[in-house]
């Protein structure tokens, strides 16, 4: 029991000793850790203090640098201020000296004139001079502000394939007072401009240039996507008494089309007073006050001819109204007169004509002012051209044109374009033509009306010829007649010629009555005509179907119509080698006649070759040994310009004398079977 008791007492003692030893060990480790943490804290503290010292030193150095820079900048500013003040004082001194010199000069002039001026104090006059200068400067500034107005520019992109562009356009306004700088009409990513058959509107700020006469418009890009076809441009003055100016175009601005131009100058054809915009067109009764301005800038243009005017409207046309005024014979004058066109509807064109009488038959129409007596509309139409019966010295030879047509311009109304019609007449003058003077009167008739009549002379060298070889070019300017339907020729003949024309007319009426598609008098006087509106138009009109009109009151004058046969497409793309002359092309044409007995002919055929670059003239295949007999093949060589890739060949025959010169109708056939 004691042993056990002793053992139990010993165990707690050992446990306590062990615990005490462990406690001292733990305490030693804790003290070691505390000392280590003290040492780390001290190192960190020294590092932080060192970093803080670095920051303080950096800030102090920055402060010193900024202070030195501020001092330097202050010195620079102070020097600049002193320099400016010095310059201002110098300017004041120079101005004072200049004013003193001007004052002395004025005093010297005043001494010679009025002695009272000499007695005025110099200081008072100097003050008056300064006041006047300030007043003039103020007036000039106010005038510049008043002269600056806003213009609205509307660009009409044409309805042509590839007529749109992604380029920016520019415009320059030219007026009677001044010209503007180059203003840009720019594209926007959100709203692309200048799309095909689209109208785009821009506003520009510019000086008041007065009545606009021209604009320069274009772009500065070449190559793919840069070209544009502009139909017309409108410019509106955004002021109380503003006007709308019309600039027709209908041309390409493309380095790869027609002439390769990307910038053009457009002339103004007229302007409309916007104060009357929005009036009811039905309110007019056709009563107008017209003021005609006569003569060119050289003092020429008065006439002794009788002048007349004809109005064309939506309901029809008026009669030719004679204009009688003594001022028409004096260049630089104007004539005002009232006319009543009647119920012709809304006007779209006016035609002025002269009869060529007197010693001065030609007339120069400068411009026309119009005022509607019912609606108070005011319109000014520009012409600037001759109504000519005689050729002018030093001018390019052109078709004489005794009439001029003016497009009537209005706000919100699309005007008809003014077109230069270029044509070629292929004329025949067989022995039976019976022409009296060898001159034709020509008129173009289309869906929108007709042009005035203009003369075309047939050269005398054709007289007595039996060949269809004479080509007569003509050009005439007129308001567009739309799609051309026919050309009307009027020419005087003798009694025999009148009888011949009556026979043609009777025969044609019989054919028409029985719906027989045959025309008469194909080769009588005029054989065919080709007309093109412009080199920018991708087509031309061909006229070859002949009709002689019956007229009981012909009085020795015959009317012959050539109807539209077809419209032929033409390229407008500019060749890459346009600047270099291309060598002529040589062609070999092989004609194979059918094998039936009646397949051959003695009539000379003619051929036209159509390529993607050009179209050849109509070429007669006349040849001494030409025999188009059944079952035979004939080869002929032709020389033309470079037509490019050939895509069409046109063969045609007419009732002409046979190739062998025979006049026996039994030996020739007007029909021919072409196999290939």
CATH class of the largest domain: Mainly Beta
Mean pLDDT: 80
Indicate the CATH architecture of the largest domain.
Sandwich
Order of the strands making up the biggest sheet:
4-1-6-7-9-17-16-10-14
Total count of helical runs of at least 4 residues:
4
List segments where confidence is low: pLDDT < 50 over at least 5 consecutive residues: 1-16, 114-126, 462-466, 656-668
Domain unit count: 4
- The CATH topology name of the largest domain reads Lipoxygenase-1
Structural class: alpha+beta
Helicity, as a percent range: 10-25%
Strand content: 25-35%
Shape estimate: extended
Largest sheet features: 9 strands, antiparallel
CATH evolutionary superfamily of the largest domain:
PLAT/LH2 domain
Radius of gyration: 46 Å
Description of the molecule:
This protein is an alpha+beta fold and 676 residues long. The chain folds into four domains: 147-268, Lipoxygenase-1; 275-416, Sandwich (Lipoxygenase-1); 419-572, Lipoxygenase-1; 585-667, PLAT/LH2 domain (Lipoxygenase-1). Helix content is 24%, strand content 34%. The protein contains four helices and 32 strands. The chain has helices spanning 2-113, 115-118, 122-147, 495-513; strands spanning 148-157, 169-175, 183-185, 199-207, 212-218, 228-237, 243-253, 263-267, 270-273, 287-294, 307-313, 316-317, 321-323, 334-340, 347-354, 363-372, 378-387, 403-407, 418-427, 439-446, 449-450, 454-457, 470-479, 484-492, 526-532, 539-548, 557-569, 585-592, 606-611, 619-620, 633-640, 646-652. The strands form six sheets. It has a nine-stranded antiparallel beta sheet. Strands 19, 20, 21, 22, 23, 24, 25, 26 and 27 form a nine-stranded antiparallel beta sheet that branches. The longest helix is centred in the first third of the chain and has 112 residues, at 2-113. Residues 149-267, 286-401, 585-676 form the PLAT domain. Residues 94-118 have a biased composition (Acidic residues). Residues 86-142, 656-676 are annotated as: Disordered. This is PLAT domain-containing protein.
